[in-house]
């Protein structure tokens, strides 16, 4: 009779193969998880900017309706007064640094207002973080040309996007 040695446990070769397989699965999972987390962060910024844009359009239209009968030379001052007093938005000029980051549809002739915590509360968006980083830019004559700028930029696909319109265009491709 053949005397077979009784196996107790696994061989070193089997253990090494198991470790290699587990390492491969872990690296794939971690890579996909990291990509998913980045995508979720970008989607969160995009959602915030869309919400700010929608609420800002309502505010700008409301302010325009309150100033439609004001003499044209006084409209900008009255609009600024309403946006600052009623909506706690602060008029700001687009710096040359910011302008270089914007798309061609926005220019320095547009009015721009920085969002405050109070503005976000009035908009019903007080849960958005980094509020002081958002700027609303709009064309007084055509409020459909309204965009939202995020000062720090949003990194997506190895590029940085500063406006909602640029980010949306990139994500649709």
Short structural description:
With 173 residues, the protein is an alpha+beta fold. It has 5 helices and 5 strands; from the N terminus they run H-H-E-H-E-H-E-E-E-H.
What is the topological layout?
Blueprint: H1 12-67, H2 72-87, E1 90-92, H3 96-101, E2 111-114, H4 117-123, E3 134-138, E4 146-156, E5 159-163, H5 164-172
Antiparallel strand pairs: 1-2, 2-3, 3-4, 4-5
Question: Would you mind describing this structure in some detail?
Answer:
With 173 residues, this protein is of the alpha+beta class. The chain has one domain. It has helices at 12-67, 72-87, 96-101, 117-123, 164-172; strands at residues 90-92, 111-114, 134-138, 146-156, 159-163. Helix 1 (12-67) crosses helix 2 (72-87). It starts with 11 loop residues before the first helix and ends with a helix.
Q: What string, H for helix and E for strand, traces the elements in order? A: HHEHEHEEEH
Helical percent range?
Answer: 40-55%
Summarize the biggest pleated sheet. Answer: 5 strands, antiparallel
Number of helices: 5
Q: So what's the overall shape?
A: elongated
User: How many structural domains can be distinguished in the coordinates?
Assistant: 1
Unreliable parts: none
Strand content: 15-25%
Separation, N- and C-terminal Cα atoms: 72 Å
Trace the largest sheet across and list its strands: 1-2-3-4-5
Key structural traits:
54% helix, 5 strands, alpha+beta, 173 residues, elongated, 16% strand
């Amino acid at each position: 009779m053949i005397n077979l040695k009784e196996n107790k446990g696994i061989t070193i070769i089997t253990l090494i193969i198991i470790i290699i397989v587990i390492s491969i699965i872990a690296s794939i999972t971690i890579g996909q998880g990291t990509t998913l987390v980045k995508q979720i962060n970008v989607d969160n910024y995009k959602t915030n900017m869309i919400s700010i844009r929608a609420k800002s359009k309502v505010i700008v239209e409301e302010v325009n309706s309150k100033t439609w009968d004001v003499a044209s030379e006084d409209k900008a001052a009255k609009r600024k007064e309403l946006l600052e007093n009623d909506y706690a938005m602060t008029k700001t000029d687009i710096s040359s640094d910011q302008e270089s980051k914007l798309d061609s549809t926005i220019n320095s002739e547009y009015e721009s207002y920085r969002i405050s915590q109070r503005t976000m509360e009035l908009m019903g968006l007080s849960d958005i973080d980094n509020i002081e980083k958002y700027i609303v830019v709009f064309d007084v004559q055509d409020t459909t040309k309204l965009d939202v700028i995020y000062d720090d930029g949003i990194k997506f696909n190895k590029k940085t996007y500063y406006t909602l319109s640029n980010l949306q265009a990139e994500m649709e491709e």
